[in-house]
Write a structure and sequence with these properties.
about 350 residues; mainly alpha; 15 helices; about 0% strand
């Protein structure tokens, strides 16, 4: 049944034939092995057999664990073979995409449906339909709320980038490249999502009108203007605090993305690992984007110069691990405007004279 279901979904998705074959084969293998484990552990089968709830549940959960294990190993293997990531990183990505609590809950409900049906017949299905429908509704609502939040974030970023032609594409570009770095670090899927949201919104405080004159200025900033623009991370955190659906870690990433590894940054002078990891990643990518961007007073720096700047400031301004990951991925070699090589994104946002590290305010 699982294999037939997988085949039906694959055909509806109209994916490549090899993907359909793989999905059907790996789900069939996982189902066969899981069933074998269930039977070997003494799980009862059929209405005529003697059943014991606790042993059957233990056998079922062990079989379910086998099913998930085979699935994740199979997916990780095929991803590592066809992609650039190694097997361990591929397995971590597959593992992090699982919602273990939800999957275990659905598994237990499935077991209860089968067990009670064998005992009570059709009335058991009616009894258990309520929590099953509830689980479906909950999942649908959660998905919808996530989509609404993403739309809200996208709208805020669009408003920000319409303020100045040099902001266009910067937030999206930084967010995508921050996500790439987060995925190769020891972060789970929730932490990667926090990094992406914080990166998209890191400059959102600049929406406030008090910053508009400074942002549109050509050339270096005065000391007074610099002190003003350095308030934008705080204003961004305050603005986003009104969006209760955003994780507090997202707000921390926004507030602290101009902190420095040695404690000389702003607004709070945090140092080292006291700086949220999202902020550390954003700080590196933001600086790379500034150095690789064309400005009225600056041509884009070549990749070798950017790499030298990153190396010189690793352990001073930047988290050394993040710098290493960014260089490993070649983030500093990419031209501004080549996000996934499918979008024409105009140069970065900061209209300030380049400091040695190339970081914008």
């Amino acid at each position: 049944m699982l294999a037939l279901s997988a085949l039906a979904f694959a055909l509806l998705a109209a994916g490549p034939a090899r993907r359909t074959v793989f999905n059907v084969a790996q789900i069939s293998l996982a189902a066969v092995l899981a069933t074998g484990v269930y039977v070997l552990l003494g799980g009862s089968v059929g209405r005529g057999t003697e059943r014991s709830f606790a042993p059957d549940l233990l056998a079922f959960m062990t079989g379910l664990t086998t099913f998930f294990a085979v699935n994740t190993v199979a997916y990780a293997t095929i991803i590592s073979v066809t992609g650039e990531d190694g097997w361990w990183l591929s397995w971590k990505k597959v593992r992090d995409e699982l919602n273990i609590v939800f999957d275990v809950g659905v598994g237990i409900l499935t077991f209860l449906v089968a067990h009670l049906y064998l005992d009570w017949g059709t009335p058991a299905l009616a009894l258990l339909s309520v929590p099953l429908v509830g689980a479906h509704v909950f999942t649908t609502v959660q998905t919808h709320l996530h989509e609404v939040l993403w739309d809200l974030v996208s709208m805020l970023v669009t408003l920000l980038e319409k303020q100045d032609p040099y902001t266009s594409g910067h937030s999206v570009r930084v967010a995508r490249r921050c996500r790439e770095i987060a995925e190769v670090m020891d972060l789970n899927s929730s932490e990667v999502e926090v990094v992406e949201y914080a990166a998209l919104l890191h400059d959102i405080g600049k929406l406030e009108m008090i910053f508009q004159g400074v942002l549109k200025k050509d050339g270096p900033l005065t000391e007074e203007q610099r002190e003003l623009i350095e308030q934008h991370p705080i204003r961004g955190e305050e603005l986003l605090a009104e969006v209760r659906a955003l994780d507090d870690d997202v707000l921390g990433g926004v507030r602290h993305h101009h902190e420095r590894w040695n404690g000389s940054g702003y607004p709070d002078g945090l140092s080292g690992e006291d700086i949220p990891v999202a902020a550390r990643i954003i700080g590196v990518v933001d600086a790379i984007d500034a150095m690789r961007s064309e400005r009225p007073y600056q041509e884009p720096l070549p990749p070798d110069v950017v790499a030298e700047e990153l190396d010189d400031n690793a352990g001073e301004q930047f988290d050394p691990e993040v710098v290493a990951r960014a260089c490993q991925l070649g983030i500093h070699t990419r031209k501004v405007g080549n996000v996934d090589e499918e979008e024409d994104i105009t140069p970065s946002h900061t209209t300030e004279e380049r400091r040695p590290t190339g970081s914008g305010p």
